[in-house]
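Protocol step 6 of 9: fold each sequence in the batch and record its structure tokens directly after the sequence line. For illustration, a two-sequence batch is reproduced in full.

Sequence one:
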Amino acid sequence: MKKTNLIGPTIVTLILFSLICGQAESTVTPTWLKNGAFAEYTFRNNSLIFFNGTSLSGDKGSFQWECIDLNASISKFRLSLIITEKNESIVHLTNEVYIRLLDRAVFLKTGTLVGTTNLWLPANPTIDQRIVMWDIPPNTLAFKISNYTGIKGQTPQGVQKSFIVNGIGQVDGQNRTFWVMSDFNTGILIDGELKNDITLKALDVDWLGFYGRLTFANTNIDLGPNERMIDLRVTFPLILVGFVMFFVVCSYLRHKNFKKKKRII
């Protein structure tokens, strides 16, 4: 009986299967993205400049995006930007954009392609992976992860494992700085240069300045398991109490043993 060599066909089949699966994985909707999924960020506002040249400032601000029409290829998102001064709203901007999930390309309601959003990045990246931050011809910018291990980000669901991507590149003839801290499990923005995100263009905002860091304030998206961090503000008092109790118990036992020995004598 003639033996059939299946090694060659098997290898070819496995290669084709891996290529097909890799392509399918790159086009699939993020597992966390559902209708109604949202994320909200707060910040201390410094200035807000519109494309028409007008500007204003406040003391606090918030930005929120929400998926309102989920589609396998292009989904609709509602954007909201609120600036307050002494707890009173001085501007409240809302609009809708379409985001192509494959490459995070942003389209205005008119169908105009305006850029690439970094409100989320690819989840579970590899240590040597280059993350595309802008992919609108003629400019394509991709940067390696600058900090892959040991980074923890504060989120509404606690401390999460995260990663940082940063770099500087040319967009429309001008230098643009990219700095994003994203949740490792979902890729969702935790902190970063929100003022540079192209979705703000749908709100006619050219520049959003704020003091300090962005705060990831609220979300209904499951970010995955928490990363445990030692909080000295909590653990130090517990350690101190434990040490005091140990000292008291040892002193009591020592005193008790001393009294027993004294009675024996």
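Sequence two, same batch, same settings:
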Amino acid sequence: MHSSKPTERRANKLKTLFALSAGIQAFAEASRAAAGVYRSWSGIDTKRITLLPNGNYLARWDGDIGSNGVSAGTWELVGTEVRLSPKKEEGMISGYFRVSVLKDFNSRQALLRKEDEEHADNEFFYLFLQTQKPNQAAQTTPGLRPSVSDL
């Protein structure tokens, strides 16, 4: 008489693998939904973060008299937090964007720096998702490149 234990273990391993696969797929879909070009404009400066679907990001802060800095590296979505890990930063942007919260503000997808959550009711503190796709932005926006390896 054969024991059903090895068969049960294999079935449990398969169930676990399928569940893990579904979880990874759901995470990938959520990350793709967060990818895009986020921008704020205050009248004297523009901040822009491009979250590429491949997990890289590019950030730029431009003032009325020139660049306040650039940052590039990788990003990940953890819950509703977008966490940036810079590989290169220059200028005043250094350390400025590390953790932002993905939010809905007036029916618009937006990023809000974790440090600015106390101002969540003020649109001045948000970077809003643009309608342009990330790859288009990287190709058409001066100073942005599609990959961190290009820097």
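Proceed to step 7 once all outputs are recorded. Observation for sequence two: The longest strand covers residues 66-78.
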